[in-house]
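The instructor's notes for this session suggest beginning with a concrete chain rather than abstract definitions. Hand out the sequence below and ask the class to guess, before any prediction is shown, which regions might be ordered.
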Amino acid sequence: MRGSVLMMEPDTVAEARVPSPGRVFLFAGGGTGGHVIPGLAVAREVARRGHTAFFVGTERGIESQLVPRAGFPLAMIQIGGLKRVGLRQAAATLMQLPVSTLHTGRLMSDRHVAAVFSMGGYAAGPPVIAALARQVPVIIMEPNAVPGFTNRHIAMFVRRALISFAETARYFPYGRTELTGLPVREEFFAIPPKPRTGTFTLLITGGSQGSRTLNTAARESWPLFRAPGFALIHQSGAAAYEELRAAFAESGVPGEVLPFIPDMPAAFAQADLVVCRAGAGAVAELAAAGKPSILAPFPFAADQHQLRNAEAFARAGAARLIEDREMTGRKLFETVAELAANPAELSRMAAAARSLAHPGAARRAADALEEVSRA
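After discussion, reveal the predicted structure:
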């Protein structure tokens, strides 16, 4: 069943069975890469130990692409969001919730699921509710400083919450949290400190899709970065790439604009400073790499979780925080120039970032699944 997609229609349940020499673990959560990629890292570790991992998600979420590509079965359910949606979507979700919960529960019974691992998001709702109703242990991984909607509402019932920020523990019952961090590729931990050279390299990335705010601010800053000693690497996203590439070529600033950077650890290794959003994955990679940063949190993230992540990094001394509404070309240049002129401050920021790193997060999450499934 590796790599298959199991469709769960409203009046049927997928009957496929996955033989396993060990226990069976269900992974819940989807919609975005941040809800799927860390779960895949834990699933790989679970599979390496001889257990079976399968996922539950939706057809429109990114899990429909990433999970089969990674070689794991994916059972489809029909569910939408409840937060920041219109009345029609909310009503549809409330109608889908009991049906998808019942189907997921039947799938759990059929496969003798030992525990559920949830990354949150609306796709996690039915599997988590079904697990709690059947007294199947639930472990959640909450990578943001403030838990998301689903995780806040099930906090009292989870067996364990794996968190990335110490301050997140206050949202869960005492004694049920563990500071594990978010799984991050080992390549980020292997990045050595960047030696000081005659060129200060700035990496700007708004994620794989790009960021309009960062793209605009970067373009406004180019005339200022013509000053000797600066170079820019800018991941623009595909939509803005052609326009920015042409304009950058005429700017006279050393560096390059790319639609997507496939080897982000290599780009981090070249950078003296990183400018990016403050999603859970981004800040986890900054910590693993020990990179000083300027964080511009996405202002419309649910529960302002990007702002809270950025504030946590700023309090630790690992980053400078520039809110979206304040991010202009001049503000960007002035902040970069100030830091470039202060190598000691950059070194302190790098050390502070590294202190927030949590190597071995996937291994520790797999340990926790084995522990609760034996209890």
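Then share the key points. The two ends are 28 Å apart (CA to CA). Residues 5-183+360-374 form a domain with the Rossmann fold fold (CATH 3.40.50.2000).
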